[in-house]
Amino acid sequence: MKACIIEQIHQNPVFKDIPMPVANEHQEIIRIKASSLNHRDMYITQGLYPGIRLGAVMGSDGCGVNSLGQEVIINPSLDWGDNQHFQSKQFRVLGVPDDGTFADYIAIDKKNVHPKPEHLTFAEAAALPLAGLTAYRSLFKRAGLKEGDKVLISGVGGGVAAMAMQLALAAGCQVAVTSGTDTKLQRASDLGADFGYSYKDEAWTKKLINDMGGIDVVIDSAGGPGFRHFIRIANPGGRIVFYGGTLGNIDGINPQQVFWKQISILGSTMGSDEDFSEMLDFVNIHKIKPVISDVLQFDDILSGFETMQKSGQIGKIVFDHTY
Length: 323
Ligand SMILES: NC(=O)c1ccc[n+]([C@@H]2O[C@H](COP(=O)([O-])OP(=O)(O)OC[C@H]3O[C@@H](n4cnc5c(N)ncnc54)[C@H](OP(=O)(O)O)[C@@H]3O)[C@@H](O)[C@H]2O)c1
Description:
Blueprint: E1 2-5, E2 14-17, E3 27-36, H1 39-45, E4 61-65, E5 71-74, E6 77-78, E7 92-93, E8 105-109, E9 113-115, H2 122-126, H3 129-142, E10 150-153, H4 159-170, E11 174-179, H5 182-190, E12 195-198, H6 204-212, E13 215-220, H7 228-233, E14 234-242, H8 255-260, E15 264-267, H9 273-286, E16 292-297, H10 301-309, E17 316-320
Helix pairs in contact: 3-4, 3-9
């Protein structure tokens, strides 16, 4: 079968013809119909991710058909464990070191296989798992999101961020977003965002305070020097959740503002099996369709990496495996 492999770091992944996977007693074989790209895949090719196994099949997100002909979607959280508060030591994200979804077929634990939401095409379903799970846990489990909360999603062009915006809007929240480009802000507005600001505009926090008063929940993946702004714009009791650190260490936080306003700063990663099931229920109830930036042929996977490198996308870059 055809598979996209990480052969060397600092090199593009390569397509190889490899043997069909063999399922153990806990697993089943899925014919992949669509997969999608995450920032994680890029970090792996750059050697910036722990536990890289050279020769492994890449890809965390996928959906397809099982041996009974059922349409299914794959939970990329492996061995989360029983504790809902944090993952076990055995926890891994699917796709390096374990063989992932950038292939014709995958052998995957039966407990990670769920029915594909019926309102989603294969391409839409492939955009959902990792971004949906990370966004769901950040918003609902970590930030305790409630209807009517004022929410800020930073860098809305990101796959998880775009998903978080959609989930927060569906939950009945007022949602503001930031982005580096006006086209992405316009797209977010078209999708229902109430306010949008360029994080390159030094006055963006002032504009947000004028428009919204303050923010109850922030969802961020950038970290870095801009993180301190979230403390200033947070309402008393505000929750600031981050699941990434693309721009590096956080500094310049004023402790007085954090304790006086009773602000919670919360880290989040992926989610449990329970979170994944709840996320699917929420997506099914609200008929949410993930934001897709591009659908490329599986053969064209490298141009997906190039687009992500340039931050050219809003939402997810999907690969169609039905050639
Ligand atoms: N902990 C977890 O479970 C988990 C899960 C998924 C992702 N992550 C991490 O989260 C990060 C994003 O992942 P992704 O897959 O969503 O990547 P992605 O689709 O490539 O998105 C990255 C986004 O970062 C945003 N960004 C760049 N500069 C920014 C700034 N100065 N302020 C705010 N946002 C900025 C950009 O937003 P604009 O394009 O709008 O400017 C860009 O779209 C990565 O570091 C990834 O490793 C962690």
